[in-house]
Records
---
Amino acid sequence: MPESVYYFIQQLLNGLTVGSTYALIAIGYTMVYGIIGMINFAHGEVYMIGSYIAFAVLAALAMMGIDSVSLMLVSAFVISVIITSTYGFAIERVAYRPLRNSNRLIALISAIGMSIFLQNYVRLAQGSRDIAMPSLITGGWAFGPEDGFQATVSYMQLIIFVVTFVSMSALTLFISKSKMGKACRACAEDLGMTNLLGIDTNKVISLTFVIGAALAAVAGVLLGIYYGVINPYIGFMAGLKAFTAAVLGGIGSIPGAVLGGLILGVTEAFTAGYFSSEYKDVVAFSLLILILLFKPTGILGKPEVEKV
Amino acid sequence: MKSLRFAPAALSAVVLLVLTSLMLGIRMESEGTSLIVTSADSETLALIAAGALVVFLFQLFRSGIDNSLSGVKSVIPSVSPDKLLSMTKGKSTRTTLICFAVAALMIWPFMVSRGAVDLATLALIYVMLGLGLNIVVGLAGLLDLGYVGFYAVGAYSYALLNQYFGLDFWSSLVMGGMLAAFFGFILGFPVLRLRGDYLAIVTLGFGEIIRILLNNWTALTGGPNGISQIPKPTLFGLEFGRRAKEEGNVPFHEYFGIAYSSEYKVIFLYILAVLLVILTLFVINRLLRMPIGRAWEALREDDIACRSLGLNPTAIKLSAFTIGAGFAGFAGTFFAARQGFISPESFTFIESAIILAIVVLGGMGSQLGVILAAVIMTVLPEFAREFQEYRMLMFGLMMVCMMVWRPEGLLPMKRPHIKTKKTRSEPDDEVTATPVAGGA
């Protein structure tokens, strides 16, 4: 095979790696939107907080002299997910619940305020400079010609694929099989009616925020280790990209969020690989505008009927 | 006691501890290649504990606190611009009052320091931006999170037109406004069909696209280094520098035969800003009385009703979007002229959020409120310089708190309306009661 094929495969792999983490974050947007119809603008910051906590845990374990990589990874995931979910729960309680029945714009502005608050809270607590960590997992498989361009799959990329796949499957199982998942689906269908039927919708909404935050934390841990550098501002762009992914796939639909995340990640990787990495954000947002123009409901979204 | 709820109170305190534990409670620092985690100083830890205690006690006595607070809430006066203006009965008194206010604004800078005038100019730029965004967000109800993109278009069009074609401030002011409006039109045309929150994200993406383009198109815009040495505005060709920069121009102080002072330039810029704000206010107030202004507000209140009455929502939204963008362009051109230097750094999302916060704080749709909020937002940080670090934190918190407790803003907008006078002094229910009694 010619070298260009390996280059293509490499870009595709990089795109799928980033795309699957976008998908994880996008699920948080899409679930919240599906149930209460608001954009949780602070979701990107939740992802950023997940990264910070993972870094703290990993650094603390390294200082204690624990060098088993699997133990470090598992504890980073568990602690980060627990604390970040608490953030998701608290954000909904403080900033969104009092506004449940008000205008959409009012809830969105509150969410933007929350996002600015969280970003600066982390900045004040941990400083605004980049925090770097030596890479935890190194190495990978290379394939391709010995003397030319080789496509590589690093072990970290592999871990990202596996963890994303496991989390998605767990979520799908939860939503389709468990009682709470059924309640979630009912709420997405008709919130008022579900409430009338005796389901505690407040609990379901809280749960949605917790699940979204937990998945964002998973993405935060993965991307944090993958890139090795974090700062308080990474949440803004990641959140925006993930929202783009959610809209791309059709907001409110979980498979749509996954599809949108993968498409966005691959598009970005190809733009960066073949054109210029500076313009990859421009391409991502242009893609969003184009999709909204020609298919406002997204790829897998259901058309929303406006009722008087 | 029923009002004491231990379990929820303890839960909130625990939640607070969990939230702060690995964030405020630790410090991460890079040391060489590895990352070091230390626990925060004892002062911070004590603060966290105190915070948890406060939350616990607050939740414990919540019902009691709520009761006493509800009394306080009603004490807060709801001042409306309507009331303020109704104090000045009659059109002539109102005009006199406005004239006095304008005169005071004009004379004031000659009596205070240069720094204060400079700050006031900055506040006026934000007033202009706030008023422009108020059309889009407050009146037409379209959430525009990329407003700073149009501001950037205005600023860069003056800088570039001057650099490449040598256009002066005055013609660029018109061009900058028109170009920004054109950008608004081009963007608005496709996206205004979208529902409110999609629109917010698309405009946000658009603002980011503009910033990234400005940052990366180094050949044209100078990239992150920006454009410097943008000339200041002139007064009918009179420059405000010590010596005229262009051949044949006469500096202001030589023309009038007075001593040179750098203050003239600052005061001139200030007066220019005041005039621009007055122009903005005038245009917006005229527009509001035109059918188009009424249509904006009607559309904000009910999209479907508007459509069923034969109004074209897209055209109405587009007009609001374009006009709002145009005002951002004016403000941008003036900003470029005042700074003399612009770079993409000045046009980040935070700037959009600040302008949005001005509109929200002032009360969506209320022009007096927006002016007040813009002044507060620019002047307050100057007085609280030692809290500079916490500025954005407070800012985010304020946005959330305003939305939760007072979503209508500081000075809520009140529609001008006429109350029909009752012909008789009898209360209403007596009138309605009579026929019932007659029927029985």
---
Amino acid sequence: MSESDINFLTKWECVMSITINVSDDNKAATMKINGRFDFSMHNEFRKAYKDVSLSGGQYIVDLSATEYLDSSALGMLLLLKEHAESQDCGVTLTGYGDEIKEILTIASFDKIFTLS
Amino acid sequence: MSQTSDKEKIILVVDDDQTNRLVLSSLLKESGYKAIIAVNGEEAVKIVDENHVDIILLDVMMPVMDGYQAARIIKSRQTYFIPIIFLTAMTDEAALAKCIDSGGDDFLTKPFNHTLLNAKIDSMLRIAGLYKSIAEQNIEIKNKNFQVEQEMIVTKKLFEKIINNDLRGDKTGLHYSMSPMSIFNGDLILAEKNQTSGFDVLIADFTGHGLSAAIGALPVSDVFHSMTNKCFSFNDILVEANLKLTELLPTHMFMAAGLISVDRSNNVLSVVNAGLPDMYLYRNGEILHTFKSRNIPLGISKLSASQFEVEMQTLEYGDRLIAATDGIMEANNAAGEMFGLERLLKVFEDNVDAEALFETILSSCSEFREGAEQTDDITLLEVCHLENIEYKTNVAFQNEHREPSNWSIQFSLDIKSLRQFDVLPYIMQAVNQLQPLGSGRTSVHTLLAEMFSNALDHGVLKLDSSMKNTPQGFMEFYQEKQKRLESMEEGHIQVSLHHELDANKGGRFTLHLMDSGEGYDFRNVDTHKNKYSGRGLKLVSSLATDMKVLGKGNAVMAYYDWDNK
């Protein structure tokens, strides 16, 4: 397969399902996760926040368009938390429906994240 | 693709016409290929069988065997991709389609254009090169896969030996079923006898599946078995396992777990649910209590003992605790639906025979799945509280060859020592080191544990054991115990252990515990109804060869005779 073929395939896999918006004062970054939040999102999720550096404040994960969330997604949220804490920031999870709330509750994530 | 021109490519020219053969051969040589020739289909087949050929230029109409038949035979026997380009004077569509149909990869109509022929050969060689590298990669992947699988099988055997201590059976009341989705299981069940002759069980589910998920099981198993054996308390085991996992696991990995302890001296079930689905206590055909997850999974952040939320319930014989990892609830059928909570609760509701509950849950889940591919590890656990429990004898105990001896040890513990650490496991260990106890080991452990907690709870901390009569009270009792232990300024316990050999058989243990408490008027307690205030001492009196309450009721002496036969 030629170089260009391979590039095409990689690009094709990265249909954007995570968006990130950083506020003007650089104190809030909002990540919106569309569709299924599972292991397949791993790279994209990391890529989304990896170069973001806030000056204090909150990372907000908007789960309103998230259909499903599994245990590897919980793991990714822990990675985000680690990233946020290194910048003295918190992580807020927001917009989730009942099913996702149930998963977050079973994992007692209310004890380590801000849920709103 | 440059790789195709590394070596001189061999092109087989098959034509019954000599002029055609000569023209083609010289043309190919000019372009840098090596040409070999066959005069009909049969000869072509023979050459291909015996030699490596990169491309075949095949005429259609030939005596002996025509091009169509030769192409079919060659393609059916090829072990690598050999492109066939038909060279034909025919131009009707049906004939050309027949070329492709019989196995040809392309065709060129005579009289052919030289540039076009060269272009077609180049194109075919490129495709053959791609086929070749894919085939090589496939072989490599197959070999690697085989190797990895073999290594996994060996590792799995080792792994199971380390982890496994199977207490399962109808005589212990412990049942579980595990079906991993790959060779290694990301789910884990550990069980170990505790000092009350009941057992502690850990059911766990690591993030992910397979080897990377299973590897965390080793440190957990190590902590769990060694600490339960040494009589560390429930909370201490959790703190230690959590600490190890937090240090060891990468940030995104954790272990959802349930720790279940059956206290047979008090008939109490303690449960810590850290990230697992609901667990159920089942009695007389219905769910009596649901243990919800109240803790974050292990391996995320370091926690102290008091940060774990423990739930307790008093047990009756025949009670069953059912626990599962999320694999049951999230089991998919072919339509992508999940088994789910509703179906699970329906199984509980419809169940008539308590004995069959466990199997019914499993079979309902597998009927629902109807053979759909498993997407997660599935684990189900049942702990039944039996009136009489019987363990298989543990081989480890019989392998100790130390000679029994005469010895005495004494510990004096002030309130600070009592507050700062759980001393009991260390005393137990000292006893184990000094004395090969054989089957009496558990009894001595239980005697010591019960006498010690009696001295601490009622003597030093002045807790009222009647609090423990209700499940609610049981929780309060332990919360109060923690509070008093932290705030109490005075108090001490003295533990004396003495062992004396018997000339003919094993020997006699003497356990003496004295506390700083006020004691109680043991001489005037109604001997029939409530001889000893707590259930603990009742157990001591039944296990010990003999026991006495001494002093003002703040000291207890127990004897235990053991036999080495």
---
Amino acid sequence: MNKRVQDKWTMEDIEAAIRHMHQSHEKLNHVVTFVDPRKQLLDVAEGPFHQVPIALKDNVNTKGILTTASSKILSDYVPVYDATITKKLREAGAVVIAKTSLDELGMGGTNLSAATGPVLNPYDLSRISGGSSGGSAVAVASGDVPFAIGSDTGDSVRKPASFCGITGTKPTYGRISRYGIIPYASSLDHVAFFTRNVKDAAIGLGVLAGRDDHDMTSSFLPVDDYENYDANIEGKVFGVLKSVTDYIEDARVLALFDQLLDKLKAKGAIIKEVEIPYNLMKAVWSTYNILSNCEATANHSNLDGLRFGVGVSGESVEEVMTKSRTQGLSFYIRRRFVTGSYGLLQENQEKLFKKAQRVRRLIVEAYRQCFEAADVVLAPASGRIATKLSGSDSDPMSDESLIVENWLVLGNFSGYPSVTLPMGFVDECPIGVNLNTLPFTEKQLFGYCAAVEEVTGYADMVKEVGKDEL
Amino acid sequence: MNFEVIIGIEIHCELKTTTKMFSGAPVTFGQAPNSAVNEIDLAHPGTLPCVNKEAVRKALLACYACHCEIDTLVRFDRKNYYYSDLPKGYQITQQFHPIGSHGYITLSTGKKVRLNRIHMEEDTAKQFHLSDKTEMDFNRAGVPLVEIVSEPDLRSSAEAIDYVNQLREILEYLDVSDAKMEEGSIRCDINISLRPYGYDGFGTKVEIKNLNSLANIERAIEFESERQSELYLRGKSVIQETRRFDEASRTTKSMRTKETALDYKYFPEPNIFPIRLSEKWLKEIQDNMPESAKAKRERFVGLGLSETDAAILVSQRPLAAFFEETIQYTDQIKAVANWLLVDTLGYCNKENLPVADLKLKPKALADLIDLIQNKTISSKQAKEVFAQLLEGRDAGEVVKSKGMTQVSDAGFIQSLIDEVLAENPQLIADYRAGKDRSLGFVVGQVMKKSQGKANPALTSDLAKKALSGQ
């Protein structure tokens, strides 16, 4: 199914989407919970999403519907309240048909750590979907739904979008309320989403954006008419982030990127190079590692098995908490919490947490300066296509691993808006390009993205994996 | 005692707001357990804090009344520790930037006790440890608190109690808090150390947690200074530790030592951006500061009351308020004070009734006083009427229903005197023979015939004339 959000949807379409999703789930394992939509169908609002079937990442709270964050400790958690965006989407007419898989608690980039098992890439079932919003990415890429919510703390929407050949939009920090999203790291967490074209992304942001008094970090700035973006890029400066492209090892990826630049130039764009000092780019991963884990360890201290979630009985309250956390959280999550706690210890804060905060500010300042020379900053979203489920043999400390595979974190450090969209294929697997602009300029960003979409022709791509194809 | 006692006090004071510090759940006292909670208080996944503006206003009132410097950039931090009464696994507090600092409180002796800081935070849940289980009440979780921390300027238990009383009076009169120790709206932690007289440094301090009455503060200080003194005299040292006061044995007991002290891993709360307080709002708060107890006492003295009477009236805020409302209705200010201090307080003490729970209405008391003043009723009748007013009735209505209106009609009284003299002709002769008893007899008979309504003074005058034949 390659129907778009902007198309007219019927009740039959919703039924078809549900059937389609059941079929693709058998192959891709991307759904945690199929939501029975009957109750929602009693009252479908008019609006830009009227009768559009959508999927939500399973860290988005849905009142009365299981919300697990793909973690064992929340495997029985049924929220008593809706996330603000759940309400907004329902008020725009959307019908939630599934809650999708993620890396446990949103912490990961492969979707291999979900409690329900790995999510597979529809383009190559031996490859990962990417994460942490892998389930939602796959739901859109495989043609189940035209729109799915994810969340993006490091690159958790924009990287899987690259691996799955779709559009992943992360707006400015504060543009969309985070109330009701099970957090990872509060200062880096963004609500983000997947579509198969730029226009649908603009429609989606129009519905989701806006001040929410439940989220004090949400912005009071008025919501733009994003759909009226201008795709004319004549005279616009596209700043290629040389600090990333310099370290891409796969020549095929660079070739795709260069072709794209040529086509943009032909459309009148001015191509320039922009740079961030090497030492700062190399520090992105470690800075992220400290900050995200420090915030995460505090954010998830509520998961103690006492008031909700899976509690393991014990002789004392302390024992219940210890056992519930030990048994309910996987080893990798606990390792992150230990890392975070270590960084926050009084004796370590200065050299770890506070230092990371200072480095974050330096990186953001260098990133901001790129926009003094360019209207939009871009680079390939990844240096390589999705890795194999069995793992990658690349050196984790190489420049490519540290810089190219982590540069999207600049969008989380800065909060600037950032969109990934398909750029081409390598080994029949998609790879994306990522575009960025200054805060609260999503409308302009959508214009640049629409220009890219126009020159690549990669709008509305679907990779069916139903029984017929396999 | 061979040593000087050095005492500092930390007071946790619950703010009197309608909703909690970071959630919209109501603040209640004495309600059914867990009836005033929402998903935020229970730290359900995905919830976010939202600062209660009224709580900030009340904290500012406290700061101004204690002569603090105000930090106009309000910031919050996380204090991380696992405990079952702390749903999030961290408390939101103001570790790094308290809203108020460098204030002082004046004791009744005139001595100034310096305040280190006043900061805002949230309360924890209440726990009830039973023999086989622990029960939790989350109504208190998230209730706004200010923590008021003194410098180690106090030197005795008497000063400590004076300090707490002064502070309590300030907070109560600002309407910032109920300031009731017995209901837990004020809780004290005491820091105490000893040093030889004349020595400038400080000895090792011990913190005593959660003292819930003035009597316990006194006992804890007395016990602890004795304990430390004994240790020093025996050549031993005091260890830095946290102790608790055991009510049963009236001793302090060790909870944890410095070696096992928790590292709270404080870091800035990422979900609340710093809030800049506007000059206009601050001025509005300062311009509308409720009258302090001290100012009120002085004003009452200015109205003609004695210092003692003014002090007793102000010692209870509801009593002072009752006084002020009553004198709206009558200009008999001293009479109002007398009725309140003697009859009303007497009744309250006898019935063990708080002034706030009196059924007596200020207007009714004022009317009663006026009825006495204009001689409509006698002071003897007034006592009888007052008893009815305590049941909530109105003065005029009681006087009327009892037919108590005093008769001052000279003609009517004269006719009664004539009757008495006709019935007892020898009275005139007796009177003229010097028997003063006759006058009393006539007045008594007239009162009897008039059922107590005859104006006694007028009756006496007229009877005197009749007996002497004038």
---
Amino acid sequence: MKEIELKGLNEKVYEHKTKEGLRVYIWVNNKIKSTYMTLTVPYGSIHTHFKVNNKTYKVPKGTAHFLEHIKFNVDKDVTAHDLFKKIGGEANAFTSFRVTSYTVYALNNVIENLNTLLDFVYNPYFTKSMVNKEKGIIVEEANMGIDDPYNVSFYEFYKQIFSKSNFRNEITGLPEDINSITIDDVLNVYEAFYHPENMYLIVTGNVSPYEIVKTVEDNLKTKEFKEFIKPKVIKAKEDKMVVKKHSSLKLNVTSSLFRYALKIPRNKFKNIADQELLIYLYILGQMNFGSTSNFREFLREKELVTSFNGKFTIIDDYVVLSFYALTDYYEEVEKAIDKQMQNNNLDKKDFLRKKKAEIANLILKYDDITEVNDQIMSDIIVNNHIVDNFSELFNQINVDKMLEIMDIITHNQSKATMIVNPLK
Amino acid sequence: MTYKTYNCNSYNIHTIKTDNFKTCHLEIVFRKPVKKEDLAKDALLVDILSENNNDFKTRQELLLYLEDLYKTSFYGLVSKTGQITMTNFILDFISPEYIEEQDYLEKVLKLPFLLIQNPNVTNNEFDNLTFNICQKRNILEVKSVMEDAFRLSVNKTLESLDTPSSYNPTGTVEEIKAITPSSLYEHYKKLLKENVCDIFVIGNLDMDYVVKVIKESFKKRVINKNNLIIDVNNKIRKKVLEKKEPSEFVQTNLNLLFNVGPLNKYERNIVFNIFNYILGSGGITSKLYQEIREKNSYCYAINSMYLKYDGLLLIHVALDGKNKTKAIHLIKKVLRNMKMGKFSDEDINNAINNYEMSLNMASDNEISLLNNYVFHIVDDLPLIEQRIELLKKVTKEEIIKVAKKLKINTIFVLEGKEQE
């Protein structure tokens, strides 16, 4: 077992790879009573088209989420929830664009809970009747999303930004997608992706790392796994430009909602790893558009918005800078964002203050079993390994590189805006 | 973990010393009897006092100061708990053991009192720009209920009770619009005069020092007697009220509201929670989930919410309108079964174990831990450890007894378009 020291944070994470290939990450906190564990497969809603052994598979939108639901069936009339209830575990799961994760909170019986988690996820029990039964439930879940105007406008906006990328599609799928999913779709995905070699287990809380690793080793030994052949996910080639520059929608909102995004090809940012780029984008966003920025004070002084948020991130092969505002003056807000984009602020004092605050926040994350688990998962999703030098990365941020990044954004962007107005 | 209370005449400081967390948490809690006509002002006041003050004239100045204090966060909340209004000012900050600056803790502790006691006021009225921003935001918050089928349906279900349970905790749009910068300042002056006040602090801190700084910083001169009654008396209806309204939503939102009680302290704090866990708050293995979702696929989620201080239980489900009548029938059937004791010892043990787990998990989170302590002071709620001991003794007979105390009050349907 490897011990990874997290530099500058006085924390460590244990890492181990089992014979079957499952990566196990453990963070220990003996001051608390509970434990949180997540078993994650890098298979999310965007992975609808893939190839295994020269055979190509196409599954309906929403298949990852559908599989997550029915995975909880362990036998006829028995669900994983029934098993966890008996040993005092609280099980759940979530599907995102990129991953599906099965989660358990436990207080006592941590080892039994861990065994149950591994047992139910690696139990290939699927029937046609469970597929049919679950459709009604998931359609109602999708309808809840359709009744949320912010959710609807989010996906409509992504459809406006992305022409082909699967990020434009609802994670649950729409009712017609859900109704078209078959047991074969589910089995094809399960067999291709749900293999220990393709997955990782993260355990955070009051545990002994050696006991956890031994339990996982002993458990997996009892199961049979085929040789893992890494599936090749097939991605459609995304257009450089947004699909539509401006759109307007009418939804059940009580205040007009404005969305704004810039799409920049990721390959324009050369010689910089994703993690480093994300840190630069974050600081850039905070300094120029964050709650302490002059830009936000301008919006407040002019009473232009009642709410404003921004997110700078990497989606597929693109960097996307997006904003969201509740406003009756969207044209003014758009002009203000455009102007700020041209005159990005790099006040040195502010720069240092932000760095100091962010490093302090990194320390704070290591206080909560859920947040630490999320952080490790995020590290793996972005980097495929634990980032042990976050505070160094923050300390290494420099103005020259920041200016370079800003210059790339200015010269390579494609812009999309959307206004959502109330129905009445 | 050490609990200690310091009596400071016009307020008390309650401290929980623990080295389990890297952060610290402070809450200033004001309490007074709920007044319908005050709710909009209470909500707007909390917002404006959290926005800026006389020392930090703009939001940006205040936020930069908070960022300098290692991203300390300060915010206010108003809530309606039974028939009292609680106004909380909350401060989250890094434990000083991780900070080298000597005056960090003093600066942090003084800040909330500075913000509350030195508002951005000139000529007896709040700064107009700040007022406008907050007023607009609060109006939007009240209006936004129309976007949220769950909140809208719950409000509509409760509104016919005509007791504090039906009041909107943020007031109405008209009430917010009627407030002026000067009338809000008049209302502000009552905050320190008319409220019972308690301050709660949790963290790895020298609590004697914390109390010393708070005493120096907080000058509350009026002593308010703590004779607040928290429970609302919602009368049982002779005939069930059945209401429906059309909506723009796809799904139909169905609510069944029940009167609960009367319950003694043990029943309301312990037994009813176990009953409700088995019935519908215990997630996918609860009786309602099993019947409505797992056996019939009518919904994604169904929940039963215990509104303890209102003496009410609310069951909510969002579904296809065509299944509404069948769902009502099944919900009533599940309740009948609970009243007839048609649940197993295993159901009870699972509920007790899982409820114990959620209480223990709450003690792993300092905000949950502190909230439990707040209600220990406000409502004499037993501490987590005491509740765990009590819940282990719950029997089937006791659960059946509280189940039988449910009386249906209202069935409300917010009709969706799915059935068309």
